[in-house]
Amino acid sequence: MPELPEVEVCRLGISPHIVNNKVTQVIVRNRKLRWPISNEVQKIIGQSVIKVDRRAKYLLLRFDTGTLLLHLGMSGTIRVIDKITPVAKHDHFELVFVNGTVLRLNDPRRFGAVLWLDKHHDEQGLLSKLGLEPLSEDFCHDYLLSKAKNRKVPIKTFLMNNHIVVGVGNIYANEALFLAGILPTVKVGTISKKRFNRLTDIIKLVLSAAIEQGGTTLKDFTQADGKPGYFAQSLLVYGRAGQACLTCKSTLLEIRQSNRSSVYCPSCQC
Asked: Pick the catalytic residue: 3, 6, 8, 175?
């Protein structure tokens, strides 16, 4: 599943091609995504994209009269292509612009979303319930500590709670906890202020590095131009269970937490 860095890379990739560009056609080939695509998306025709924002893993295309919300789901991809590019299997939705540019969503599993937020109102509450952006100034020292008060959940589960902080998905939670020297099973209520502050800084560094390198390509993610992300080449623990720790040479172990893989070093993390 594309995580925050991959979605941010997508935002950066598509913005130069569609901002200040007028939509001339909206094509819906399959309405049956995570939620049915409403006919209201046709309101975009004749409007120009003002800017492209991101909130958590949602892309937000801003127009004068509302916002088009896009989510890539489990394996969705967005491409900026020429309108003569042949339609492929699972190409479910696209915007055609006046200069011939096309923004096309491909989603094999159909877990993605295309929603029109009329007058920018989030009626379904998808955005209002989200926690802080990890790369924002508000995600600062003491924040995680304050949210951990009276909680007994494992730190890995805590970091992946989107009501607390968004976008620290499985890959980056594994990596950040390794660099912070914290076991994924440690209860949040036992972690000191000093360690939480260090973890906060590391989360920012890991996510920023992933964005700089174009995201992480494992199975499904590619950038808007079709190129892969290269952060996978820098992964220290995720996907390396049974291999030697790059720091101490101990064998990396793997457990399941909330149906997700957690890989850690029994020597470097405690």
From this structure: 3
Conformation bin of residue 91: beta by default, left when phi > 0, alpha when psi is -120 to 50: beta
**Closest by alpha carbon to 92, among 113, 74, 62, 121?**
113
List helix spans (H) across the chain: 4-18, 143-148, 155-159, 170-180, 193-212
Residue 72, domain CATH? 3.20.190.10
pLDDT, one tens digit per residue, over 210-241 is 898 875 543 333 445 555 444 555 789 999 99
Per-residue pLDDT, 212? 85
Residue 94: is it exposed, middle or buried by C-beta count within 10 angstroms (0-12/13-18/19+)? buried
Single out the catalytic residue among 83, 147, 151, 260: 260
Does the active-site annotation cover 3?
yes
Sites in the chain below the pLDDT cut of 50: 217-223, 228-230
Among 2, 5, 134, 184, the one annotated catalytic: 2
**Domain that includes residue 214, residue range:** 143-264
Res 14: pLDDT: 92
CATH number at residue 161: 1.10.8.50
Active site residue 2: yes
Residue-wise pLDDT tens digits, 50-91? 999 999 999 999 999 999 999 999 888 999 999 899 999 999
Which of the residues 11, 54, 57, 156 is marked catalytic? 57
16 is catalytic: no
